């Protein structure tokens, strides 16, 4: 507000005269003292006094507006009065002929009618006041910036809003930063009065707190910057009655980071909205701020914080906390405090004699650190051999001359401002003694205290001045005492020297009286210097000796550097170096030494060379080397040449790529990853990689794929399902292909699973502690449709993060070895895939003491050895909690049990907080240290799950990581547009198009919908485009009733719960000209790798066939259909008449005995698969009735298609078993399911350790349940044709087992998907089954048994339905008796002749093939 009042004051012309009166009456505080403290020069003293010369007023940075008047103040003091001039941007202004700029009597600059246009800004810039006193010197003021407010433009304008009574409202009005002081507000077109409840923030935003009905109305902001006022749009503010219901807290205005200068005011805005009305409190660096008792801290309307007269201590992080009793939200901002340059030590006035060296000292401070430059009499001092900047800021002048007299100013400058301080240099005559000066002040005159000069004889010139030692860089001078004073014990000497031809003379004094030698150093070789010596006694300096001319020695004539050194590679292992004879050197060159070194090493090698070229062999391939040459003569080695670098030629790689790995993505693709060959074996720039792959079966073709560039992975697609492939990779350079890796195998999945999210939590975790080990067992996650690639087991004493082990997805057990007895371990288990790690499951266990010698269960075998680090003495922090504050900030708090109960830290311990997100899986941890029991983690990604853990360190002791805490950041509006926007026309509907897209890469939350904009004019305003909303996360949309043959432009915008994201780039699409033609967009839709263009004529109009058929062909089709119908009728009749009456009776009796069991018919190869039931901790395999084979083949009947069809059943839900079983097979009851064939007794049951087998046993070639008719009340049995040769999940015995009957059947299992953990497979559609003779046989259980009784096997509990379960008993039928099998075979043979049926079916199949051939011709 003060800045606003100051800016408006500049607008009135009356301000000009007011300022003039003020300036004429102003005097610097020290001016009077300066004048009174400057005595005139005493007659005959010979010493000139320092003249008071300084600025009373200096110009300051000023903000003006176009057309107004501006005064830049400046006033200087000196006697006589100084002449004032002005510089703008470093150039003097000609004020004599300028009618808009004029110099006021006190030296101020007055500018009328400020000019400011877009391309003409003559008044804006940096101004500097220059004061000059004739025959004395010049001083310059600080520079001041004149800023002219630009034309008003609104970056944001007030928007209509509705606010409940008692809450706060925020109306934005963002303009150029230089226009903010000129902004005011109007309500209903009347000026709005500001008070404690209604305030205007420094940004121009209006805040109204504790809203009442009178606050409603139309609001607009006005900018008055000299021209006509600029009005914003009007926005209506409605005040609603209090609904007396709660609403979530949200920030209407959050604080933002701020930079302020010491002494200014800072306002941190913070306005929150919610019901109940929230209260605002502030914290700084986690300490509460008391705004009530502080004079500098004021809480403004709405909750904003104002800090007046800012100091450096006010810098820090400020937290705005809004609380309404129901919830709390928090926002933060950083306040940075800067300081203008300030002088800690100012230059002081100096007396000196010619040829002396002096130093002006200047020490400054500021934030940011200021830079320093020096000015002499208004001109910049350029560093040289005689003017040097020493100790960062001090100015050293060497060898003073009379012209060096004047005023020197130290000017310090940083981003905040600039300041100047000056001092005067007076050069005295040599016969005038230098007076002793008291401490001087920058802006006041100096009182000079001069020692009275005594009169007496002066010494004569020193005698016999000689250079006793002359070197290349120094000269030692000696002399005898003057003839006037032969003893010379009290004489001191000054040696004056200069380069020949240079007027500036330097001086070197002897260190103590009576010394008659001095060494002059830092000279140049082969240079002539002139020396003279003067003696001084108590009366002054005597006569000078005659000039002595001495030339320093030249440098030893060693060879110079060899010119034109060149190096070039001649092969992958050799480099040739050439050079020429050095241009300078004394004597003949004897030989050369060639030095070379591999880049990146410090071992240099050399070789002697007598010629001007040499070839180095045996170098590494494609490696950079540096070379230099040194010439030798009789004096020794000369000057080395500059290093020249060259690289040997490239070659094919000499090693294969490293770390080849295969990752099965789905049923048709495999991702290959590798690393480049070792750097020493690449032998060149890797230009690509060659991938070769083939099926694992013999004599399969090899497919080759090239990957260009530095890509280290490749997705191989279009593979066959459930097929094993071999892969190998070789690296390429421009020279060819290097060796390939060994073949690596992987098998594609038989069905696809989801890997777009992390796995769910494992369904159970069990631990069994032993003395020095813990047995861990688990079951997979309940959701079997998400890929699980392995499990991560973490464990440690008190914390599970001391050690982590990863195991394969097939593993269900692990033994943690090498643990400490009687120790408390915490164990965590997480499932992971390529997306990341899932949520962990925790368990704890205490290992047994040494006296306990019990051993592990038998089912844990071959557990890998895992070393465990020694436990550390410090306990980890506990109670780690993550509090979500915003979309990018989470506060972590914890407790330390090793601290006293009040949790105060009194020692030097500190805490380390680490965090990471599990997406992607290889994300690295980030760390930060804290000395309190909390830490604020910032810079996080929106809507992302993070895990946090803490460790404590005290001295050399540290704890392990604590247990993890998880937190998901809040959502944020999408920050990227939808991707891959494509537009295609709908087939058959030319006026309808289909828009497809992909979600934005930075959704920052769940996408709740999209908005499609389209228009025929790409340059139209966005509000003129047609809008099509899309609800939900659909990625396609149809737009109808478009105009034919018209170009359209499409943009898409995504939205989530936080708002709308950015729009995509416009995509052009032209609708077709007529029906049947397809439009062409600027992007083609992705049709996929399986897409094939339609054959010509497939969509012929008017229903015309693809190819014309003559009447003869049509006749053949009609006759063929008739013949097929007759043949089918004959076959059915023959089939029915061959069935005997006795056989029908026998089957009806069997139906009654089994109460609804199936009957089977077919030849010896037709086998009915048994029913595989998984019910409440029990797996029962139904036996086969009437199997014609002595060794029956057991197959699975259809089971539920996915895990959702199976409902968990516990012991309290037995009454629902019938209902659940009927959901599998509608015509079977519990009795019919659990009852075996009537002719057989109960078969032995056994325990089946499913976890030891590969997960997800699939069922192949099994008819779908949808094709099975339900039994009716009249018919108890239903006929089913068994697929021929069905072998999936069947039990087969070897021929030896058939004869002996000593072994139980073995199960043939074909894993369908290696990533499902005992998942219920999907049923393939019914079709002609095929028998795979190469199907591998995996024995699930092999037991020797002479008689039938129950056998149990100790197993781990598994959770088929997502929970921990005891072992499942499996009912396995034994082989039928030989007599029974014979009867079954006889019955089937007496029913009908299979050969006749086979012939009829073959004939029918042939007729069908002929019909297909005719129709496709």
Protein model, in words:
The protein has 1417 residues and is mostly beta strands. Helices cover 9% and strands 36% of the residues. The chain contains eleven helices and 92 strands. The strands form 24 sheets. Strands 11, 13, 14, 17, 18 and 19 form a six-stranded mixed sheet that branches. Strands 21, 24, 25, 28, 29 and 32 form a six-stranded mixed sheet that branches. Strands 80, 81, 83, 84, 85 and 86 form a six-stranded antiparallel sheet that branches. Strand 87 and strand 88 form a beta hairpin. Helix 5 (1111-1137) packs antiparallel against helix 11. It starts with a helix and ends with a helix. Residues 1-44, 438-453, 854-872, 1076-1109 and 1145-1392 have low confidence and may be disordered.
Helix count equals: 11
Q: How many β strands by DSSP?
A: 92
Q: Average pLDDT across residues?
A: 75
Q: How far apart, in Å, are the first and last alpha carbons?
A: 91 Å
Radius of gyration: 49 Å
Helix-and-strand structural type: mainly beta
> Biggest β-sheet, characterized?
6 strands, mixed
Low-confidence stretches: 1-44, 438-453, 854-872, 1076-1109, 1145-1392
Shape: extended
User: What percentage of the residues does DSSP assign to strands (E)?
Assistant: 35-45%
Q: Give the fraction of residues assigned to helices.
A: under 10%
């Amino acid at each position: 507000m003060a800045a606003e009042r100051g800016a408006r004051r500049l607008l009135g012309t009356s301000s000009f005269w007011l300022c003039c009166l003020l300036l004429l009456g102003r005097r610097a505080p020290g001016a009077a003292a300066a004048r009174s403290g400057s005595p005139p020069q005493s007659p005959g003293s010979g010493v000139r006094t320092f003249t008071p010369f300084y600025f009373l007023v200096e110009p300051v940075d000023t903000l003006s507006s176009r057309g107004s008047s501006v005064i830049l103040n400046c006033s200087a003091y000196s006697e006589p009065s100084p002449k004032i001039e002005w510089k703008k941007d470093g150039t003097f202004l000609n004020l004599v002929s300028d009618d808009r700029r004029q110099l006021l009597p006190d030296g101020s600059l007055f500018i009328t009618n400020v000019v400011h246009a877009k391309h003409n800004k003559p008044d804006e810039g940096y101004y500097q006041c220059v004061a000059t006193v004739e025959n004395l010197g010049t001083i310059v003021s600080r520079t001041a910036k004149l800023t002219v407010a630009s034309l008003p433009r609104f970056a944001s304008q007030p928007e209509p809003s509705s606010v409940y009574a008692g809450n706060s409202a925020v109306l934005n009005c963002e303009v150029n930063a230089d226009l903010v002081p000129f902004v005011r507000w109007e309500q209903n077109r009347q000026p709005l009065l500001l008070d404690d409840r209604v305030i205007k923030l420094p940004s121009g935003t209006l805040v109204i707190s504790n809203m009442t009905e009178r606050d409603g109305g139309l609001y607009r902001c006005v900018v008055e910057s000299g021209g006509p006022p600029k009005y914003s749009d009007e926005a209506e503010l409605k005040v609603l009655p209090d609904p007396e219901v709660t609403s979530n807290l949200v920030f209407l205005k959050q604080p933002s980071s701020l930079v302020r200068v010491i002494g200014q005011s800072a306002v941190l805005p913070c306005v929150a909205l919610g019901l109940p009305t929230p209260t605002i409190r502030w914290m700084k660096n986690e300490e509460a701020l008391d705004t009530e008792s502080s004079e500098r801290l004021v809480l403004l309307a709405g909750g904003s914080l104002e800090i007046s007269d800012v100091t450096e201590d006010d810098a820090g992080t400020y937290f705005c906390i809004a609380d309404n009793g129901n919830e709390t939200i928090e926002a933060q901002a950083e306040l940075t405090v800067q300081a203008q340059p300030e002088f800690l030590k100012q230059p002081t006035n100096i007396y000196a004699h010619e040829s002396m060296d002096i130093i002006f000292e200047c020490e400054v401070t500021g934030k940011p650190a200021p830079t320093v430059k020096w000015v002499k009499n208004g001109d910049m001092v350029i560093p040289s051999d005689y003017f040097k900047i020493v100790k960062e800021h001090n100015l050293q002048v060497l060898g003073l001359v009379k012209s060096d007299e004047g005023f020197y100013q130290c000017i310090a400058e940083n981003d905040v401002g600039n300041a100047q301080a000056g001092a005067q240099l007076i050069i005295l005559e040599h016969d005038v003694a230098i007076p002793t000066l008291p401490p001087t002040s920058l802006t006041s005159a100096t009182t000079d205290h001069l020692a009275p000069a005594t009169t007496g004889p002066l010494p004569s010139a020193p005698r016999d001045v000689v250079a006793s030692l002359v070197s290349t860089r120094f000269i030692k001078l000696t002399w005898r005492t003057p003839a006037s004073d032969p003893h010379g014990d009290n004489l001191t000497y000054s040696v004056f020297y200069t380069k020949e031809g240079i007027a500036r003379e330097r001086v070197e004094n002897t260190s103590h009286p009576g010394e008659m030698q001095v060494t002059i150093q830092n000279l140049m070789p082969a240079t002539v210097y002139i020396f003279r010596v003067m003696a001084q006694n108590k009366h002054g300096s005597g006569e000078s000796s005659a000039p002595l001319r001495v030339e320093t020695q030249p440098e030893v004539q060693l060879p110079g550097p060899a010119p034109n050194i060149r190096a070039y590679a001649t092969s992958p292992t050799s480099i040739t170096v050439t050079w020429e004879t050095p241009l300078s050197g004394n004597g003949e060159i004897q030989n050369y030494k060639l030095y070379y070194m591999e880049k990146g090493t410090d071992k240099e090698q050399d070789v002697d060379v007598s010629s001007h070229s040499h070839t180095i062999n045996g170098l590494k391939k494609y490696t950079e080397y540096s070379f230099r040459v040194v010439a030798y003569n009789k004096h020794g080695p000369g000057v080395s040449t500059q290093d020249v670098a060259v690289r040997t030629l490239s070659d094919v790689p000499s090693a294969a790529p490293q770390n080849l790995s295969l990752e099965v993505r789905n049923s048709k693709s495999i991702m290959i990853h590798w690393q480049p060959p070792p750097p020493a074996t690449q032998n060149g720039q890797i230009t690509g990689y060659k991938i070769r792959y083939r099926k694992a079966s013999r004599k399969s073709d090899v497919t080759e794929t090239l990957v260009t560039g530095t890509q280290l992975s490749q997705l191989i697609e279009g593979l066959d399902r459930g097929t094993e492939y071999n892969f190998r990779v070789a690296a390429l350079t421009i020279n060819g292909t290097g060796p390939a890796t060994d073949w690596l195998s992987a098998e594609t999945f038989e069905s696809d699973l989801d890997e777009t999210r992390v796995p769910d939590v494992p369904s159970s975790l069990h631990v069994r502690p032993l003395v020095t080990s813990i047995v861990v067992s688990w079951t997979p996650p309940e959701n079997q449709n998400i890929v699980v690639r392995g499990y991560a087991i973490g464990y440690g004493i008190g914390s599970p993060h001391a050690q982590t082990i990863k195991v394969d997805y097939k593993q269900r057990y692990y033994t943690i070895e090498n643990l400490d007895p009687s120790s408390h371990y915490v164990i965590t288990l997480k499932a992971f895939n390529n997306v990341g790690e899932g949520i962990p499951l925790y368990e704890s266990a205490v290992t047994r003491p040494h006296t306990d010698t019990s051993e592990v269960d038998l089912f844990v075998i071959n557990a890998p050895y895992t070393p465990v680090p020694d436990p550390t003495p410090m306990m980890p922090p506990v109670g780690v909690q993550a509090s979500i504050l915003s979309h990018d900030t989470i506060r972590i708090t914890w407790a330390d049990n090793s601290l006293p109960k009040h949790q105060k830290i009194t020692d030097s311990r500190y805490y380390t907080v680490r965090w990471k997100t599990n997406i992607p899986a290889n994300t690295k941890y980030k760390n930060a240290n804290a000395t309190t029991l909390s830490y604020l983690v910032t810079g996080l990604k929106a809507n992302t799950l993070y895990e946090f853990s803490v460790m404590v360190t005290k001295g050399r002791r540290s704890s392990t990581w604590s247990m993890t805490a998880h937190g998901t950041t809040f959502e944020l509006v999408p920050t990227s547009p939808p991707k891959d926007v494509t537009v295609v026309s709908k087939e058959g509907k030319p006026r309808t198009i289909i828009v497809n897209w992909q979600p934005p890469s930075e959704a920052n939350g769940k996408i709740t919908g999209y908005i499609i904009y389209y228009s025929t004019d790409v340059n139209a305003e966005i509000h003129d485009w047609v809008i099509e909303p899309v609800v939900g996360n659909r990625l396609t949309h149809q737009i109808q009733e478009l105009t034919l043959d018209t170009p359209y432009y499409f943009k898409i915008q995504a939205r989530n719960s936080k708002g709308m994201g950015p729009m995509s780039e416009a995509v052009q699409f032209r609708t077709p000209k007529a029906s049947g033609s397809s439009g062409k967009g600027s992007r083609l839709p992705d049709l996929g790798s399986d897409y094939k263009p339609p054959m010509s004529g497939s969509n012929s109009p008017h229903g015309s066939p693809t190819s014309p058929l003559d009447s003869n062909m049509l006749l053949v089709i009609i006759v063929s259909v008739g013949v097929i119908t007759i043949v089918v009728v004959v076959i059915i009749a023959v089939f029915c008449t061959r069935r005997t009456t006795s056989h029908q009776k026998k089957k009806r009796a069997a139906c009654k005995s089994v109460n609804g069991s199936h009957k089977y018919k077919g030849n010896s190869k037709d086998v009915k698969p048994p029913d595989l039931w998984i019910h409440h901790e029990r797996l029962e395999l139904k036996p086969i009735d009437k199997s014609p084979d002595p060794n029956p083949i057991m197959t699975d009947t259809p089971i539920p298609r996915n895990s959702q069809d199976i409902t968990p059943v516990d012991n309290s839900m037995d009454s629902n078993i019938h209902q659940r079983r009927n959901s599998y097979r509608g015509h079977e009851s519990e009795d019919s399911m659990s009852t075996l064939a009537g002719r057989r007794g109960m078969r032995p049951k056994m325990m089946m350790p499913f976890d030891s087998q590969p997960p997800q046993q699939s069922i192949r070639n099994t008819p779908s349940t949808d094709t099975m008719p339900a039994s009716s009340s009249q018919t108890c049995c239903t006929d089913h044709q068994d697929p021929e040769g069905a072998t999936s999940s069947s039990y087969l015995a070897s021929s030896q087992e058939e004869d002996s009957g000593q072994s139980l059947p073995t199960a043939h299992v074909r894993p369908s998907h290696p990533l499902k953990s005992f998942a219920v497979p999907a049923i393939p559609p019914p079709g002609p089954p095929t028998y795979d003779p190469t199907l591998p046989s995996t024995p699930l259980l092999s037991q020797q048994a002479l008689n039938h009784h129950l056998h149990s096997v100790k197993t781990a509990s598994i959770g088929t339905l997502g929970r921990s379960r005891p072992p499942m008993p499996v009912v396995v039928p034994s082989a039928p008796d030989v007599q029974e099998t014979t009867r079954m075979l006889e019955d089937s043979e007496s029913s009908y002749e299979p050969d006749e049926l086979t012939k009829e079916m073959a004939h029918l199949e042939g007729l069908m093939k002929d019909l297909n051939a005719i129709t496709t011709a």
